[in-house]
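In this section we walk through a basic example: taking a raw amino acid sequence and producing a predicted 3D structure, encoded as discrete structure tokens. The instruction is simple. Fold the sequence below.
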Amino acid sequence: MRKKLLLLFFFIVGGTATYGTELPDSMQKVLDKASTDTARIRILLKASNTGVQQDPDLGTRYAMMALSLSQKSGNRALVAKSYYRLGTNAYIAKTMDKSLAWFVKAATLNDSLHDLKGMAMSYSAIGDVIGDEGNGKKSIEYYSKAKTYFIDIKDTEHVIYMDMAIAGTLGSMNLNDSALAYTLSILPAAEKTGNNTLISMITANIGAIYKQKGEYAKALEYFLKALKCFERQGDFVIVAQSYGNIGDTYMLMGDYPNAEKYVGLQYESYKKAKSQIGILQAMKQFGNIFMQKKDYQQAAEWYKKAIEASDSFFKADVTKQVAEMQTKYETEKKDKALILQNAKLDRQQLIINGSIAFLVLILAASLVLFINYRKINKLSKALSVQKVELQELNTVKDKLFSAISHDLRSPLGRITNMLYMMQRGGMDAEKLKSRTSDFLNAMNQTMQMLDNLLYWATGQMKGLNINKTQINLWEITDENLELMKGEAELKNIELVDTVDKSTMAHADLNMVRLVMRNLVSNAIKFTPEGGTVEISSVNENNMVQISVSDTGIGMDKETLNALLANKQIKSRMGTGTEKGFGLGLQLCKDFIEKNGGKLDIKSETDKGSVFSFSLPVGS
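The resulting token sequence is shown next.
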């Protein structure tokens, strides 16, 4: 099971699960060779554990078969292991209700068997599920129970993992001082085990807490210690993440030469790992460093590189997926045609031989036709699924290329033109000063669009990790209004914040930040000079609702209905010729729904708009 460290380095991504009865030939052969039911059950449980990451459906199917065999054989210990395995698979598939039910069954049965290790693992898993559902206090109670059983069986490493889980939960509850004290207290015990993976994880988490507290020197100390451990393990992706954390910390400290050095190492490590998403993140980080240095020309160059790289990478990746799906679709289509042809030949042969043994052949014909019918029906269903998947991939490709060619290239072109004029000396000091605000506006717009593109493309093709914690919505609002203050001042727009300072929600911090940034940015874009943008909050029925209202140009019913239906709409220019809707609103809708909320839009032409989103109330 996944442990809640501080969710800085290690994640597990899963999918949905369904059940079936057919097995791959290789697995069936292995099971046939097993001499006892107990051996078959252990094979199925091991295969479920290994296979669920690649194929959740197959992993769950193995676990269900193991449970059925265990119950038939009366082996209660293996029944408990099957319950636990099914709970883990459901957890990875993010079906939390099912996961919790399986783990409770496992804990109850292990208790009756007096299996201390089984009870410890089950309680730990229940703590994970409850923690992910937002009940940190209850989660810690279960981790503490699990820790007690691990102490009883003298499993030191799992005792430390439980301590890490408790510390991570304290961090997710924004109790950073408690999380730090707890994590520091378990580091000596981890060092005694000699387990470098354990030591490096704890050390990196200490650095992350210090960074979150703004104590950058201490954060750097622990990040550098963790890096040495990670380098010995030889995992280029984790090493690259460490370099990125160090580079980001140096940037926050204002030490730009070292920030560039470590982001450069991050870039090279991602290249060795062949991680295209990682390479794009490193390019964007370079752009952020130069923006902090106010070296806008270099910043623009790195953002341009990131956009060009994302263009070629996502184009190749999506095109490859579409081609593979097309090939699979055509192959199954040919298989269907071949089965139909064979069925026709079978019927002809039956007619020729009919005079010899009419009754016998009628029976045989019925059987052949029935088998062929089942094959055709099965293939038809598979073809329908493949066709839908192919259409979805083509839609992803079209949206992605449209975003790159329109949303990103417009502000990038403005930046490039200004850079060329600067290089040729085509701007005197007075003209350069007058264009600085436009330059910065274009730069911020490019950064926001690049963020949107990376989040959206990752969600469409790789899946996104959702890290729900207790977040303060007033802090997020204040942070984004400060970020957008410059754009608002250019249009003399008043920004009003009436969100209560104690407004809490249970959601993913980065996702909500992106939603808020997009909604405030859109409100400013479509509000004329002298207008007002207001952010307000209200709590109702265990949900908190944030509303971003403006006195802008609004939308007609046709545009509003298209947005609510998630349809493609024609891009609109803002009141200051800013670029209009792109991927941002689609991301907002997706992210809010993934966090258990809903996005609502109200608008009238020339009367302004109100964009509201709801989230579960935090504790």
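Looking at the output, two observations stand out. Confidence is low (pLDDT under 50) at residues 1-22, 317-325. The chain has 21 helices and seven strands. In the next section we compare this with other chains.
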